[in-house]
Amino acid sequence: MKKINPENDLQSSIAPERRDIERCLEGLSRVPKDKVLDRVNELNQRINGLQNLVKEQIPTQPSSIIRVCTLEVRALADQLNVLRAQLVPKPKFRFKARAMLTSNASSSANPSSNTTEPDSPSNLTVAKTDSSMAVDDTSSRLVFNGQTDTHLSIDLYPTPSPMDISPPSSPLRSVRDVHLTHLTGCTVNLIPGSISLGNIYVKNLKRCLVVVPPITGNILLHGCVGSTLFGACHEVNESRKRQRRY
Asked: What are the start-end ranges of the E strands in the chain?
């Protein structure tokens, strides 16, 4: 681009470069696809050069000429932006939204995968009846096993059988033992509305709170750490007395 003489008209001085850029813009659609981006960057630099040139001549040129030249250069920039959007290939992104949603749903549905702090009540989830909460009809056992950061309640079990809901003095009323095994950061509520409880077997609990109603049997403890148990029973047998608080 030739140097602008302050004595010359700015508009006529930049006209050759402006017209050449216009011709390049008109032929941009015929440029091979693998070279379009380079050509766009080149034209962008040339348009920026015209903009800087107009700014430099502001002190020496009439404001009307500066305004006209600025609009002409801006029109080139707008046309380049339109062609860039049409011709420059956009990067392709592949999203596996359905797979991600399925994975997130599986993670949130599995309490054992929870990595948040177990001591906060807001982090506890309410367990649903599954393989870790089973009713053994052959031995009248209620089992809570392998849960983490979960609120467990005897009310989560299916509707009791007629033998369970019989009056306490009835010979038909069944007495069920409870097994609490391998629980971490859980609260366990064994206060039932209708089921009679016999013995409570507690094994490998960590940072758990267990509430037991008055029962006819015993509470047997083994391998529990940092947990608290409230309840009334005939006798408590424990293997590690120094690790328990009652």
From this structure: 125-126, 133-136, 141-145, 150-153, 175-184, 187-189, 196-206, 209-211, 219-222, 227-230, 236-238, 244-245
